[in-house]
Amino acid sequence: QSALTQPASVSGSPGQSITISCTGTSSDVGRYNYVSWFRQYPGKAPRVLIFDVTNRPSGVSGRFSGSKSGNTASLTISGLQAEDEADYYCDSYTSDGTWVFGGGTKLTVL
Amino acid sequence: EVQLLESGGGLVQPGGSLRLSCAASGFTFSTSGMNWVRQAPGKGLEWISLISGSGKSIYYADSVKGRFTISRDNSKDTVYLQMNSLRTEDTAVYYCTNLGGGDYWGQGALVTVSS
Q1: With an 8 Å Cβ cutoff, are A101 and B105 in contact?
Q2: Number of cross-chain residue pairs from A and B with Cβ atoms under 8 Å apart
Q3: What is the pLDDT of residue A74?
């Protein structure tokens, strides 16, 4: 049950695009299209931004998009805004029937 | 509107027990797998347990296996987490969530294990 690998931090300027990677194995990210991305503000519960690799729930901005290649999933945020500054987590279903999270990425908007 | 509401958190001494509850509404609870996820202070999210909609399939993370028990009552749309033999490292905010079924999260329940 090793955690998925995310960069500890990323940063970008307003208006730019950034991408956060989430690397797993052939037993989780690489095997299933059950990868979600969550945003978490300090002291708040996580909120889903992307589910099933590429799908956006209603109400989530089109600036957020997801993709996957092999064992690595990615979250791209375009048109970066100050309100995007938060922690971001990915998760994946695993071949054990469990779920695993990434270690989290702190996004700083410069 | 989907709502998940955790309760039962609090302060407990090492070796003690606590039971968390999560009341769900706004979706078909009996067909949804439910999970508990925790977050230690200043740390990331850690998945700890899953129970299938029927309650027949149950999974645990190694860190809580043998100490925590997940259960559900579909007549009350509620999932539980019985936590025994608590350790200081179990101190965290505990969330219930239906990962893979909408990815909704409760507001969390703080569990503090300290003497």
Answers
A1: no
A2: 57
A3: 98
Find the closest chain B residue to A35 by CA distance: B100
Indicate left, alpha or beta for B60 from its phi (over 0: left) and psi (-120 to 50: alpha). beta
B55-83 per-position pLDDT tens digit: 999 999 999 999 999 999 999 999 999 99
Helices (H) and strands (E) in chain B, counts: 0, 10
Q: Which of A91, A94, A106 to mutate to test the interface with B (most CBs of B within 10 A)?
A: A91
User: How does DSSP classify residue B104?
Assistant: -
B3–A contact, CB cutoff 8 A: no
Close Cβ partners of A46 (under 8 Å, ≥ 6 residues apart) = A38, A39, A40, A89, B45, B95, B97, B105
- Residue ranges of chain B with per-residue pLDDT less than 70: none
Q: Which of A62, A59, A63, A51 is nearest to A90 (CA)?
A: A51
Q: What are phi and psi of A74, to 5 degrees?
A: -140, 145
